[in-house]
Amino acid sequence: MTTVADPPALRSRTPLRRRTRGPRRWYRLISPLALLVLWETAARTGVLPEEKVPAPSLVAQTGWRLATEGQLSEHLLDSLTRAAVGLLIGGTLAVALAATAALLRIGDNAIDPPVQMARMLPHLGLVPLLIIWVGIGEELKISLVALGSFFPLYFNTYAGIRDIDQRLVEAAKTCGLNQWERLRHVVLPGALPSLFLGLRLAIGAGWLSLVVGEQVNAQTGIGFLMMEAREFAQTDVVVFGLLVYAALGLLSDTLIRIAERRTLAWRRGLQAT
Description:
The protein is mainly α. Helix content is 78%, strand content 0%. It has one domain: MetI-like (MetI-like fold, Orthogonal Bundle). α4 crosses α5 and α7 runs antiparallel to α9. The longest helix has 35 residues. Pfam families: BPD_transp_1 (PF00528).
């Protein structure tokens, strides 16, 4: 009995990716590190006024002081809670409404036109109206995060479902799959790539909304910490707060990308060279 060997290209493809994936991860750190070095040099040499743009080393010292004093953990926990609750509310509504609009004709006629109209309004410009509606407490911050995360997730989920090839659905019906099985085995896998993209965009919009929300009558949170520092011209604290927001956004996006990679392991996309 003879066996047929795999072509050389197929044999070497996976090991090559395993060998190169590790170093490429480190390559992504080159540009941020270079930017930090350039920033530090410009601040130390006086190109950037230190009272306006403090050096990264000074910002790091400030962050360490806030962490050791316990202020950072308290404000960070409150910001994370607001972001998580707002994203949960906005994301749940977005996916539910998008699925209803994409799968049902009556849902499309009833839901999509108002959403299309509402997306033309800048949600951050609705702050004065939201203050009248929900007050200036926690509800305002959570509402802003929910609004910011709703639209990216809604439109990407809607587009992901509508982009599924109708022939796949008809083939599943021919094979005897009922409606629930077609949703599970055809619609959901086909819409997942767009849903993950929408989730990444929604998280970014949610953090941006939280930055604004925590500057409106907040008593805790990273935004409150920045506003309080502004009153005393503590630019190092303000810059540190911005870096915390950026780090939280990057961490959230990285976690979503990891989940996407594992969930969509069956999907072979274009690889960067």
